[in-house]
Amino acid sequence: MPTTYSPLRYPGGKSQLTPFIVELLRENNLLDGTYVEPFAGGAGIAWHLLLKGFVQEVYINDLNPSIYAFWKAVLEENDKLCGLIEDTPITIDEWNKQKLVQHSSNTASLELGFSTLFLNRTNRSGIIKAGVIGGKSQDGNYKLDCRFQKQAIIKKIQDIHLFKDEIKLFNLDANDFIRDILPSVEQKSLINIDPPYYIKGKGLYQNFFEHKDHQSLLNSIETIHHPWIVTYDNTPEINSLYAKHNPKTFELNYSAQKKCKGSEVIIYGPGIQACQFEPGMTFSQVKNLKKTLSDNMIMKKTKQERYEYDEVV
User: For residues 228 and 226, what is the distance between their CA atoms, to the nearest angstrom?
Assistant: First the structure.
């Protein structure tokens, strides 16, 4: 299982694309620049890039008030959030209480952020509106606390908080974020756009899209002057919408509900050079492929030099 730096489990999360994103940054001379996610969710790629020094600044945006409240707590009320994690019992009674927090209209931001984390770690596949792991009777093979390793979660939160000055957080509709915020972002940036899935979005996310929303997003994306990429589930509708941008298919491991391989598409903006590595490759696979390519280049160069020597002789 790849290392993830996000304290959130996120359905459809793209953390496994991190090795590919690193190579994409390298290929386009964008290392040490800025990384931007208009649909941040768990922001697993963002935290890896920032904490490991691949980028110097991160912009994350999420319209979902629960997700926004959690990241706001990480950045601004870190000690209180970690205290709640430490002191709150992981029980069905508490789960019921935290479910009510999500539906309350007068919940404080910190409490909403903690509730989001609690349900994310105790619900099936990290889906906020899903059922609890193990069922309400807790007679399943796994119990609700099996994904709630308190000290590991606290460490991830504290690690991210250390970089709070390099993180810009927003709670905007993606179209508004693209129109109002992106123009102020330095040009040496990668905009990684990961919208709600076209087919299964309604079952996974609190803020899902209808077809008109996907079309509206495309219209906004085409105004972006920075290097950008988009990833989506591989559907006829998305391939049709983005046809002129030549979507490329790739496989990704899914973990929401059940583990399986899913087909996705990646769309490259006009200002970005595709890299030779496939999305979904691990860091080890990238390293091995680089070595193979390097060995092949050396072998090819040696053969060429031998040929030239024979010609001279």
Answer: 6
Q: What is the pLDDT of residues 56-68, one digit of tens each?
A: 999 999 999 999 9
Confidence check: pLDDT of 144 > 60: yes
Domain boundaries, the chain: 15-275, 282-313
pLDDT tens column, 260-285: 567 899 999 998 999 889 898 999 99
Compute the mean pLDDT over every residue in the chain, rounded to the nearest whole number.
90
Q: Which CATH superfamily is domain 15-275 in?
A: Vaccinia Virus protein VP39 (3.40.50.150)
The answer to pTM > 0.85 is yes
